[in-house]
């Protein structure tokens, strides 16, 4: 007999996972409280790096069902979500997502849905990179200086170079000028 598990994730301690449980129950999933796994962790953390999710995967068995309210509960990255779904699918666990109409993401229709979502996510990522590059090119063409502002003045940079040639260490110079060692190191010798 299939057991139903719910994975509920919130990003901050001020948030509550209760609404997610209520949504799942309203959709007809009868989930025992001991099978509701909830945790507070950023969605950008890959699912298998989350302590609660790893414990959940350890508890799952063949033919179990894992339900989430939204795909972003599993992760914000389409590739991570896909890898997570594929991992539990290898265990013959079905994954249902309410926001996608309750579709089982391990079924053929669910796999197609995941492929479309992944393609859209990749397209959006490509557009973002394209817009960023266009913006940088436009800024350069307008003569704007890009990157992080220098932490040392031109005079300080010259003094650092002289002192480095004299053998002063990165740490000593960083302390002396009140910057990180990496700022001194970037100047070279």
The residue ranges in which pLDDT falls below 50 over 5 or more consecutive positions are: none
- Helicity range of the residues? 40-55%
- Tally of extended strands? 5
In angstroms, what separates the terminal alpha carbons? 70 Å
Summarize the structure in words.
The protein has 189 residues and is of the alpha/beta class. The chain folds into 2 domains: 4-117, Rossmann fold (3-Layer(aba) Sandwich), CATH 3.40.50; 154-186, no CATH class. It has 7 helices and 5 strands. The protein has helices at 18-26, 51-59, 78-90, 108-141, 154-165, 170-177, 181-186, and strands at residues 4-10, 36-40, 65-68, 94-97, 103-104. A hairpin with a 5-residue loop joins strand 4 (94-97) and strand 5 (103-104). It is elongated, with a radius of gyration of 25 Å.
Gist of the model:
With 189 residues, the protein is α/β, with parallel strands linked by helices. It is built from seven helices and five strands. A five-stranded mixed sheet has the order 2-1-3-4-5, with helices on both faces.
Index terms:
Rossmann fold; 189 residues; 2 domains; five-stranded mixed β-sheet; 7 helices
Secondary structure topology:
Layout: E1 4-10, H1 18-26, E2 36-40, H2 51-59, E3 65-68, H3 78-90, E4 94-97, E5 103-104, H4 108-141, H5 154-165, H6 170-177, H7 181-186
Parallel strand pairs: 1-2, 1-3, 3-4
Antiparallel strand pairs: 4-5
């Amino acid at each position: 007999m299939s057991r139903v598990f719910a994975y509920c994730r919130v990003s901050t301690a001020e948030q509550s996972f209760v609404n997610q449980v209520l949504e799942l129950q309203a959709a007809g999933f009868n989930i025992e409280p001991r099978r509701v796994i909830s945790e507070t962790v950023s969605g950008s953390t890959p699912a298998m790096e989350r302590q609660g999710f790893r414990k959940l995967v350890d508890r799952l068995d063949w033919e179990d069902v894992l339900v989430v309210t939204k795909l972003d509960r599993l992760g914000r990255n389409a590739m991570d979500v896909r890898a997570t779904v594929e991992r539990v699918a290898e265990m013959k666990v079905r994954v249902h997502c309410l926001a996608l109409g309750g579709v089982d993401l391990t079924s053929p229709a669910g796999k197609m849905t995941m492929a479309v979502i992944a393609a859209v996510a990749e397209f959006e990522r490509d557009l973002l990179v394209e817009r960023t590059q266009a913006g940088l090119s436009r800024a350069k063409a307008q003569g704007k200086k890009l990157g992080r502002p220098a932490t040392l003045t031109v005079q300080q940079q010259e003094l650092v170079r002289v002192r480095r040639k004299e053998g002063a260490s990165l740490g000593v110079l960083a302390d002396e000028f009140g910057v990180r060692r990496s700022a001194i190191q970037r100047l070279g010798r």
